[in-house]
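Folding problem:
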Amino acid sequence: MSKSKNVLVAQSGGPSPVINNSLRGIIETCKEFPDKFGTIYAGYHGIEGVLKEELLNLSAQDEEEISFLRNTPAAGSIGTCRYKLKKDQQEDLKRVIDVFKAHDIGFFFYIGGNDSMDTAHKISVLAHEKGLELVAVGVPKTIDNDVGDSEFKLIDHTPGYGSVARYWTCYIQNANEENAGSSPADPVLVIQAMGRKIGFIPAAARLADPKREIPLQIYMAESGLGIKELADNVNDQLKTAGRVIVVVSEGYNAGDLGESKDAFGHTQFSASKITVEQSVVNYLNKVGLKARGSARGQVPGTDQRHAMIYASNIDLDEAYRVGQKAVLIAVEDGNGYMATILRKSGLIYNVEYSKVGLEQVANSERTFPANWLAENKIDVTDDFVKYARPLIGEDWVSIPLIDGRMRFARFKQIFSDKKCSEYIPQGFRKKT
């Protein structure tokens, strides 16, 4: 590109505690190359904002607010969405290119999971088919740690997972103190963890107790165990320990929940008629416990991905670096890549930042390694603990407080003037 081109950054899917630090890495690194990058815009609420031509001017924001992105959780700064660009929605795809052309967008950074990498890849291919000189680079994000391959060669882990793993480490420690004290009346505590298909989040509960001193059972979707087997396992441990903490994945098969689906076709367990946790609690109390008292349950919910106080400093730093790397890829390597994190071999945890083709990770989905699931199917192995332990860090994150309240980034609502006609995304149109 002979002259500087404008930048568009957007994010999609569920947020994470560290996603804004990837955004900060992109913004600050782009500013280091004024000859390459012009005005930096954000698609307000992801690709939906692009379709609606709602482009937030990030170059017009105060430097102080940009710095506060480090410790600002979730996606409130520029918004996210769950809108998928589908192959049959050609009007949507054309609209994206029209908006890019109207605003002289030459660089597109998309922060998200596997579906987002698919979107970035589609836009990259279409742009070049339509003669638009565009560099599209993906930035990985997902708390589920399911982007990439099961051999961990494309990416070792995704920013967001380390903080959620830390959340569960602390959550189980606190829950254990509660359960130990109240066990004469409430001997079983069932806790539901996020994770539709893959068990990295519930598996992180083991980090709270690597020596296995807590009466803890973990039921991932991969366990293959039915609810009757769960009840038998719980009652067996009640006979010896007198109490049990059960961590169950939201994707665990506990029967009909009346699930609802999001725009990507994924089950929304938090919007279902009954939770997995409640189904398990109801069943345990119905069949009876081999101890006095009842089973109780808890569902932490979306605070798993927005409780900034539990964020991992390692995760925050890596999220920033992967954002930086995405910009360097755009400058040095060009179009069609995703920035990635690869773990170096050795006893001391260390990583390097590299790149992988968007087409390799688009709609990819890793599985939880079978050899990390314990033989009894209700625990994980020490190899998993060795993998996940470095990601949760050592120290508490430092969050600035003003009048006792957390100080988060607050962007001024400065949007680019609209240059295209009004548009309703195809997925929002009423079918006749």
